[in-house]
Design goal:
Blueprint: E1 2-8, E2 11-16, E3 25-29, E4 35-37, H1 57-87, H2 95-130, H3 146-151, H4 159-173
Parallel strand pairs: 1-3
Antiparallel strand pairs: 1-2, 3-4
Helix pairs in contact: 1-2
Bound molecules: zinc ion.
Amino acid sequence: MILLAHFAGNEVCLRQGVFSAKKTDFIFWAEHEMAVELTRKSFTPYVAKKGEEYMNGHQRKHFRKILEALKSELSQEIDRTVHTMQDEATVFADPNDRASQESDMALELRNRDRERKLIKKIDETIARIDADEYGYCDSCGVEIGLKRLEARPTATLCIDCKTLDELRERQVAK
Ligand SMILES: [Zn+2]
């Protein structure tokens, strides 16, 4: 199984595919749709027992593990970007080369900025797990649900409130 992580707005999303039955891989998608493949970590989707209490110790541990894996992948990605930028800090004689180098770097910086924000978001989410507040909708208080959380481990709204939120945002944007 392959998990595709991509960034939609402020949420870290994971998409599940069926490429391999044994292992789960993380692939990160940056906003500009360019896939950046990072170190592979495995995790298996949580299988709740019948009547199991929502967000019990095992479940909290499961999501903590996912979030920590995401965080370390992102941190490694930031380190990689820093090194790339240092390596590419050549001064080109051709103004066209300089212009494209500048736009490349601007893009890298934006990516790095987004990655930092996501790490912050992940930290906040881990703090919610520790405070026993994880997995409930910020707006209406219902359980967000294991499936949605596995797809979007940083989600703070249930799917209904999220949909409503997006509708409102679109209204405002008009
Ligand atoms: Zn809600």
